[in-house]
Amino acid sequence: MSFIRAATLARSVATSSCRRYSTEASTKKSSNLGLYLGGAGLVGLGTYVYMGFGKGEAVTAKKDLKSPLDPSKFIDLKLKRVEPCNHNTSKFVLELEKGEASLLPVASCVYIETPDFKDDKGQSMYRPYTPISASDLEGELIFIIKKYETGKVSKHIHSLKAGDSLRIKGPLAKWPWKMNELEEVGLIGGGSGIAPLYQVLQHALADKTNKTKFKLFFDAMKKKYPDTFDVVYVLDKGDANWKGPTGFIGADLIKQHIAPPSLGEKVKVLPGQVASIAGKKNGRDQGELNGILKELGYTGDQVYKF
């Protein structure tokens, strides 16, 4: 195949307005199920390269921007506003100075620290989070974060209000994107695992050198890139009017929408936080490949767990 085919199968879909909704099943059928991964981030004349991410690609910024982030220490960023999405999920917008952007490489995340809770060694607890804002967005750094009742860091973040500060350290590099390295890539996300997938997609779609077709999970992106991106919605439960797939993402759905393992090094599957799909991670390590993808014949080299 001459294009990358991919599927983004999302059981929980967020929109730019933080509004949950159901969408009518598309009447357009296509085998061009796309994902294209972009090389976002390392931008501006003052570009920095995160150690260990040197094999990724850098992209020229829209203007001369600099990043306030430091991969070696936590810094304080002011919370500009909080926009509730639902009862336990909100958008958190952090304020950056004029001429500043996160300049995060794609794919990467940052650590958010809470001074209120300590681990068993007496150190402040921190957890990795992936922004949903573009790497070169000037003046803001945006996250969508779900509050977990057993999650001390997420509870701390949700206790904050505009004017408070969040402690951020990064970037923490993940899987480095290289332009046109792959022919086939699949994205599988569930719940909060959507964030790193969205980071990759929004950067890639904006690249004018893109020759790839995509599978969409955000209507806003579908409207912007109608010729190169499509969508598969998977609902937990659909009503009588829902014609699309429902329930858990299983082997049949993956085989229908994601490129087969027979493509070898030309296919990549990027699951979010869905252990049943690819098995659990081992801390920061990828861990052994298990789950549905292993059963379908994919290898560890063909899968990267976010």
The ordered string of helix (H) and strand (E) elements is EEEEEEHEEHEHEHEHH
Widest sheet: strand ordering: 5-4-7-2-3-6
Based on Cα principal axes, name the global outline: globular
As a percent range, the share of strand residues is: 15-25%
* Alpha-beta classification: alpha/beta
Number of helices: 6
Mean pLDDT: 74
Gist?
With 306 residues, this protein is α/β, with parallel strands linked by helices. The chain has helices at 152-158, 194-205, 219-224, 251-257, 275-278, 291-295, and strands at residues 8-10, 75-84, 89-95, 108-118, 124-129, 140-146, 165-173, 184-189, 214-216, 229-233, 267-271.
Topology of helices and strands:
Layout: E1 8-10, E2 75-84, E3 89-95, E4 108-118, E5 124-129, E6 140-146, H1 152-158, E7 165-173, E8 184-189, H2 194-205, E9 214-216, H3 219-224, E10 229-233, H4 251-257, E11 267-271, H5 275-278, H6 291-295
Parallel strand pairs: 1-8, 1-10, 8-11, 9-10
Antiparallel strand pairs: 2-3, 2-7, 3-6, 4-5, 4-7
